[in-house]
Amino acid sequence: MGGDHAPEAVVEGARLAVREGLPVVLVGDEARLRPLLRSDDDLPCVHAPDVIGMGEKPSVARSRAGASVRVAADEVAAGRCAGLVSCGNSGATLVASILSMGKLDGVDRPAIATSLPRLDGGTLYMVDVGTTADANARHLASFALLGHALAVTEGVPSPRIGLLSNGSEPGKGNRLVRQAQPELAALGLDFIGPVEPNAAFEGRCDVLVSDGFTGNILIKTAEAVIGMLTRHARRRVMASKRARVGAWLMRDALHSLREELDWRARGGALLLGVPAPVVVAHGRSDADAVRAAVGLAHYAIDARLVDAVETALGAAPSTDRVAVSGGPGAP
Amino acid sequence: MGGDHAPEAVVEGARLAVREGLPVVLVGDEARLRPLLRSDDDLPCVHAPDVIGMGEKPSVARSRAGASVRVAADEVAAGRCAGLVSCGNSGATLVASILSMGKLDGVDRPAIATSLPRLDGGTLYMVDVGTTADANARHLASFALLGHALAVTEGVPSPRIGLLSNGSEPGKGNRLVRQAQPELAALGLDFIGPVEPNAAFEGRCDVLVSDGFTGNILIKTAEAVIGMLTRHARRRVMASKRARVGAWLMRDALHSLREELDWRARGGALLLGVPAPVVVAHGRSDADAVRAAVGLAHYAIDARLVDAVETALGAAPSTDRVAVSGGPGAP
Description:
Two copies of one chain form a homodimer. In chain A, the strands form two sheets. Chain A has an eight-stranded mixed beta sheet with strand order 3-10-9-4-5-8-6-7, with helices on both faces. A two-stranded parallel ribbon of chain A has the order 1-2. Chain A is α/β, with parallel strands linked by helices. In chain A, α1 (about 10-20) crosses α10, α3 packs parallel to α4 (about 90-100) and α5 packs across α6 (about 175-185). Chain A has helices at about 10-20, 30-35, 70-75, 90-100, 135-155, 175-185, 195-200, 210-240, 240-260, 285-300, 305-315, 320-325; strands at about 25-30, 45, 85, 110-115, 125, 160-165, 190-195, 205-210, 270, 280. At the A-B interface, α7, α8 and α9 of A face α7, α8 and α9 of B.
C-alpha cells in the first residue's frame, strides 16, 4: 500500500515477478487490491485495514498493528513469508521489522545498505542511507559492522571501512565524524579513516559509513546528477543531426554504461541487522522497480544473506556491544 | 602558499591571469616565490613567513599573524588589494577574512556559496558549502539571507529558498532540518521548505541552504559522479570501434555539455558576508583553476558584488540579528 504509485504499480510489479517464478504474497486493503487482480494471477492476499503514510512519523508503527507494513512483517516473523518488500515509509518499515522480528545478536541499530558501482570495477557498500538521520558515534560503529558483514558475505575478503567526510585531513569533518573515528578504530576492522565522495567512488574503500541523512543526500545527489546528465545529453544530441548519427553509433556503449550505473535497477536497498531479508524500495517505484525489489528480496533469501551476515557479525573482531560502546571491554 | 600544488601552480595561474589583464599580488614566502618568477612577470610579492596547513584547525589563524592568508587578508583590509583568492585551508581563510575585514552588517555567520547549473537552465545557489560543518538553526538563517542577497544580486528578482533535506514530507530531515524550518520561515523571504537534491537540480528553488558539511558532501558527490561518468564513458567508447566513430561525431555536443556542467571552471566559491570579495578555490587547483579563481575575484570586484549583497541584505525583510535569532523583534 506504500509509495507514490500504490497499489497499482505494486500489484503490477508483483505480477511481473510471479511470472518470472518469484512468489509474492500481497499485504494490504483487500477492497483495493482485489479489483486490481486478474483471474489468472497467482497472488494470494493478506488483509491489512490500515496504511502508514509517507509523511507520518516512523514511531506511529508501534501502535498501528493493522498497518500493511506491520501485518507484512508479522507474516515474515510467523514464517509464512521469507522476506519483506516495502515501497512505503522506510522508517516505519524499520520499526515494524524490529517489532515483529527483533534484531540480530550484536546489532545495536539496524541500517539500510545500498551498493554503488566504483570506477575501479569494485562495489561500494553504503551504510546507512536512510533509517537513522540523527545517528551518534555508537550507531556509526554498528553501521560499520553491518557493512563489513555485508561486504564479506558478497565476497570481499577483508573490506576496507571508510567514514564519509568532507575531507580526510584531521581538522575536517563535522562533530559526529570526529567523535566516531575512535569508535570505528576500536572495532578491530580495517578502518581507513575519513573518506571523501570522490575517493570512495575511485575505490579507496569497500564500505562507506555515514549517518542516514548524509548517506541519503549522497545517493540522491548521485541519482540526480546522472538523471541531469542523461537528459542534458539527450537535448544536446537532438539539437544536432551529426550528433544524432553519433549517438546512434554509440548506442550500445551508452546503454551498457547506463545499466551499470543505474542502481535503481536493483530495486531497492537492504535493511541489515534484522533476521530476515527486508527490501526498502524507492517511494517512486514503478512496476519494473517493484519487480526488481522482489527480485532483490528473493536473491537475499536464496543466497541465505541473513545467515551469512550473522556469521560475519559473529566472526568480526568485536561485535559485543560493550566494545562498540567503548565500555570496559573496549581496547 | 596553500593547496596541493602550491606555490608552483598558484604562481603559474597568477601569471596566466595577469596576461589576461587581471592584476595579481602574490602573498607568501619570498624565498620560495622569487625563484618561480620570470624577469618579464608583472607579479609583485608581499612577504609572509608562515603558512597554515590544510590539516590544521581554522582557529590557529587567530594567533598566526604571519601566515600567508592572514597577510593577504590584511592587504585587502588596508585597501592595497581589492579581493582575496586562496587555495588553502578554507576555514582559515574564513577566520583570517573576518579578523582583518570584519563582517557585513546583519551577517551572523559568513558562508561559502557556489552556483550549480539546473536542468531548467537556471542557477542553483548553494550556501554553505564548507565553512560551518556543525551549523545550528540560526546559522542556516544567516546562510539563507546571504544566498537570497547573492541571487538578487545576480538578477533573480524573488529567489525561492529551499532547505536541503532527504525528503520533503514533515517527518523527514534530521534534527537540524526540523529546527531550522521555523527560523527560515520567520525571515520573511520566499522559503519553500525542505527540498531534495533532485528537486533542487530540477529547479524547485533558487537558493539551497545547508550546513557546510552536507553542502560540501553534495557538491563533492556531484563532482565525483560527473568525473566517474566521463571516465566510464571514455573507457566504453575506446573498447568499440563503432562507438569511437560515434563519439567523434558527438564530440561538439559532449564538449558543450561538459563545459556547462563543469562548475570547477568557475575556479572556486565565494565567501559571502565579508566586506570584500574572497574566493575559496579548490585545494586541488591547477594553474588553470587558479587563473579561473582570480577571474572570479575580478568579476566580483568589477560587478561590485559586495555592495550589491550589502544592499540586498539591507532590503531583505528581516536582516537585523534580533529577528534572525528569534528574539523580541522576530515576527
